[in-house]
Amino acid sequence: MMKKISATVAAITLLGSVSAYAAFPAGYPADYQKLVDGAKKEGKVVIYSTTDTKAAAPLIQGFEALYPGIKVEYNDMNST
After folding, report:
1. C-alpha–C-alpha distance, residues 2 and 75, integer Å
2. Considering its fold, how many domains does the chain have in total?
3. Rounded to whole angstroms, how far apart are CA atoms 52 and 57?
């Protein structure tokens, strides 16, 4: 019986650790979810960059897939 309880506790601990890892990658601030929630409330993130829009497109698509509900408004500041 004690083995079964220990295994259950170990499984719950492991699942909790995996969930925490999935939610906050290493190096992210503890209040990162608060930042994401604020961005979702605003609905978009605005970026000004000198990287060509074509080169930035895969990054923008990846961001929007990772954070549904947050659109990227990308402003290409190149002079050419």
Report:
1. 61
2. 1
3. 9
Domain residues for the domain of 70 are: 2-76
Question: In tens digits, what is the pLDDT along the chain, a chain of 80 residues?
Answer: 555 555 544 555 544 444 444 567 888 898 999 999 999 999 999 999 999 999 999 999 999 999 999 999 999 998 76
Token pair in block for residue 76: 């290409």
Rounded CA separation 22/53 (Å): 30
| Nearby residues of 53 by Cβ (< 8 Å), 6 or more positions away | 74, 76
∠ CA 71-77-80, rounded to 5°: 130
Give the SS3 label for residue 75: strand
Q: Which two tokens stand for residue 27?
A: 């190096």
Q: Closest by alpha carbon to 23, among 43, 15, 72? A: 15
pLDDT of the residue at 48: 96
